[in-house]
Specification:
- Chain A: Keywords: Cell projection, Nucleus.
- Chain A: Belongs to the ABITRAM family.
- Chain A: It is found in: Cell projection, Dendrite; Cell projection, Growth cone; Cell projection, Lamellipodium; Nucleus speckle.
- The structure holds two protein chains of two kinds.
- By secondary structure, chain A is an alpha+beta fold.
- Chain A contains three helices and nine strands; from the N terminus they run ββββββββααβα.
- In chain A, strands 1-2-3-9-8-5 form a six-stranded antiparallel sheet, with no helix packed on it. A three-stranded antiparallel sheet of chain A has the order 4-6-7, with no helix packed on it.
- The longest helix of chain A is centred in the C-terminal third of the chain and has 15 residues.
- Chain B is an alpha+beta fold.
- Chain B is built from 18 helices and 15 strands.
- In chain B, helix 7 packs across helix 9, helix 8 runs parallel beside helix 11 and helix 13 crosses helix 14.
- Classes of the chains: A alpha+beta, B alpha+beta.
- Chains A and B meet through loops of A and strand 15 of B.
Chain lengths: 169, 532
């Protein structure tokens, strides 16, 4: 009855692998039938591999822009920061000195960033597809179907994973 | 014509000469006797002419006899021009039939009044009354009274103004004054005449508060452009509005007439107004019954039924809906044009409504039938319940419009009772869920659920779970009964909605949880007073 179980039952999974050419930095966009999208890390992302510890998460992506200051009002979410596909959402540093930028992957209005991972970074690694989500984005009504054009379906992503496996062996 | 006095004579003469009908003349003479207006047209004309002759006679002779002996009548020549006289020959025959014959030929040549454009002439006659009643009877409405509403063309206000200015001037010459408010309003006089006739023909009384409305729209295309001069004189009164065909609405014209100066008016509009060629036309006669309200409670037994029709891009996604299943039969029985369904709260497509049922009300718009006995309502309820097993209704009854307001008010105060079937990823034992029963008044912070976030503002809602009672089923399932504050998102309380509802069952049990089934029981203590 409950396949994945929990809140993600009504979402379709879309993938963006190797963002900005960085190997295995894959993201998964959960798209609800009502257009709302949740940005998450895909299983293959380096931050989710064993041995990685998160040192810090920073939503201040530039001198003038902090995702934490995003404020939306009303049904149409006025005042939201507008995101393009490669707009950074946050920067995460791991204890081994690496730094990773998390990107929006889709165009739309930023509704909220997940503040729970600030207070408890562990859930990002324990439950990346639910409580450990990065952000919620609402695409424009006219673009709600076209945003997935730049993304891969579950099947297509699995082929990418397979290719990686084969090429590394 | 005992209502008219000496001082009215010049006015009567003036208006009659300019082409004004007897009833409008009476109005401008401030005659308030309703019965007088109901006299037949030709009688009124006759009486007016006599009144004038009487006074003329008084000037000619010393005789102060008010009643005219026939010989005197015959002697006098008709000197007035204007609406055709009763008798071309100037001599009135005594034999009624001949009179009637003459009047019949004369009536066919009756000039259209230059003030009312025929409203107080042709449209007071029995033929028009019959036409209206025919429309009413053929429309098959149930009613116990009626209100008759009339829409007059705006140029009537302009002509009324011109006639008033004419009369005012004449009165002024005689050292008398005439206030605009003393003149009998055209619509008022019209209703004095036509209401009794309609009432007689339809068999029910006229009542201003009646829910059954018979409306007539009059138009006079020949003179439509008469209002246009007002636009140049008072341009700010005539702003084009998106959904209005003509800028010259009745209200706009009346406003402009209030503003315009007398001299400007007289510059642009003939005084007295000209005689038109044609009568007004009655554009449409419409009937409308005020809405009736049917209320009750419904139970929903389907997990696949939306509240309202679910249609996206013209395609119906799920068959039928709660409102359609209930309203279908009501629409047929009441023979209404349309309906508006409202309920005290609502539930999701996949949630059942148990218990006493959810209160609802349906507004039936323009119903043809309005009277139903308690027995008939019971029968209707049975018909609805027999037609579908997805919903059942009870306490179906006719209510007033006020009842709906009270129903909506009650929404906030309710405590809701739910029953949820819950799945867990990791195994559970009875002991693992027992502690839920002891939690009282649990405070939740619920962010707007993702599933409705596209159409609701982002906010955090504080809600309370009053009590819970768990029922162990197996290692991965249990049933949870909850009593919560109104407006709590139960599904999100169970699965956590990406951690955006805190705390949640998943966090309390330290597992991943999901909701498989949800039932709601609506407690209706408040509504025992509303419905029987």
């Amino acid at each position: 009855m409950a396949a994945a179980g929990g809140a993600e039952r009504y979402f379709t999974r879309w993938y963006k692998p190797d963002v900005k050419g960085r190997p295995c930095e894959d993201f998964c966009v959960l798209q609800h039938s009502n257009r709302i999208c949740v940005i998450t890390l895909a299983e293959a992302h380096p931050l989710l591999q064993s041995g990685k510890t998160i040192k810090s998460i920073n939503y201040q992506i530039s001198a003038n822009c902090s995702r934490l200051q995003n404020k939306v009002s009303g049904k149409s979410k006025r005042g939201a920061q507008f995101l393009t596909e490669l707009a950074p959402l946050c920067r995460i540093s791991s204890s081994d000195g690496e730094e990773y930028t998390i990107y929006s992957c889709i165009r739309g209005r930023l509704i909220e960033v997940n503040e729970n991972i600030l207070s408890n970074p562990a859930i990002l690694q324990e439950k990346p597809s639910t409580e450990g989500y990065i952000a919620v984005v609402l695409p424009k009504f006219e673009e709600s179907k076209s945003i997935t054009q730049g993304l891969l379906t579950q099947k297509e992503y699995e082929e990418v994973l397979l290719k990686r496996l084969n090429s590394s062996s | 014509m005992s209502s008219l006095t000496e001082k009215d004579r010049p006015i009567v003469q003036l208006l009659l000469n300019s082409g004004t009908c007897p009833r409008c003349i009476l109005r401008f003479c401030c005659v308030g006797s309703q019965a007088l207006y109901r006299h037949p047209y030709k009688d009124l004309m006759k009486d007016l002419k006599e009144f004038l002759k009487n006074n003329q006679e008084k000037e000619d002779t010393v005789c102060s006899d008010v009643v005219d002996p026939p010989c005197k009548r015959i002697r006098l020549e008709p000197t007035e021009e204007g609406p055709d006289d009763l008798n071309h020959n100037g001599a009135l025959q005594q034999i009624p039939s001949v009179n009637d014959e003459n009047t019949a030929t004369e009536n066919s040549a009756v000039k259209v009044c230059n003030v009312c454009l025929g409203i107080l002439q042709e449209f007071c006659e029995v033929d028009f009354v019959k036409k209206v009643c025919q429309k009413v009877n053929s429309s098959d409405y149930q009613f116990t009274s009626f209100v008759f509403s009339v829409s007059l063309p705006p140029q009537l206000s302009v002509r009324e103004r011109a006639a008033w200015l004419l009369v005012k001037q004449e009165m002024g010459n005689l050292g008398l004054s005439l206030a605009k408010d003393d003149i009998v309003q055209l619509k008022e006089a019209y209703k004095w005449i036509i209401h009794p006739q309609l009432s007689e023909e339809l068999g029910v009384p006229a009542d201003g508060k009646s829910l059954f409305e018979v409306s007539v729209v009059f138009a006079h295309p020949e003179t439509d452009e008469e209002c246009h001069f007002l636009a140049t004189a008072c341009p700010d009164c005539f702003k084009p509005a998106k959904n209005k065909q003509s800028v010259f609405t009745r209200m706009a014209v009346i406003k402009a007439l209030e503003k315009i100066k007398e001299e400007d008016f007289l510059k642009h509009f003939p005084c007295p107004p000209s005689s038109p060629q044609n009568l007004c036309v009655a554009l449409e006669i419409q009937c409308n019954n005020g809405a009736v309200f049917v209320a009750g409670r419904y139970n929903k037994y389907s997990r696949n039924l939306p509240q309202t029709p679910w249609i996206i891009d013209g395609e119906r996604k799920l068959e039928s809906s709660v409102e359609e299943l209930i309203s279908e039969h009501l629409m047929a029985e009441f023979k209404a044009d349309s309906f508006n369904f409202s309920s005290s709260g609502r539930e999701d497509v996949d949630v059942r409504t148990l218990g006493n049922g959810r209160p609802f009300a349906i507004e039936l718009v323009n119903p043809r039938r309005i009277h139903f006995t308690a027995e008939e309502m019971k029968g209707l309820q049975q018909t609805i319940n027999n037609s579908s097993d997805k919903i059942q209704v009870r306490d179906l009854q006719l209510v007033t419009r006020e009842a709906i307001g009270r129903m909506k008010e009650g929404e906030e105060e309710k405590t809701k009772t739910y029953s949820a079937l819950i799945w867990t990823d990791k195994a559970i034992q009875k002991e693992d869920i027992a502690f839920l029963d002891d939690i009282k008044e649990l405070k939740l912070d619920q962010k707007t659920p993702l599933r409705v976030l596209h159409r609701r503002p982002l906010a955090v809602r504080c809600r309370i779970i009053h009590t819970m009672k768990s029922e162990y089923i197996d290692e991965h399932h249990f049933r949870l009964h909850l009593k919560t504050q109104a407006g709590t998102y139960i599904k999100e309380f169970v699965h956590g909605d990406f951690g955006r509802t805190k705390p949640n069952i998943g966090s309390l049990l330290n597992r991943t949880t999901d909701i498989l089934e949800l039932d709601v029981e609506v407690s209706c203590l408040l509504f025992i007073f509303l419905w029987n």
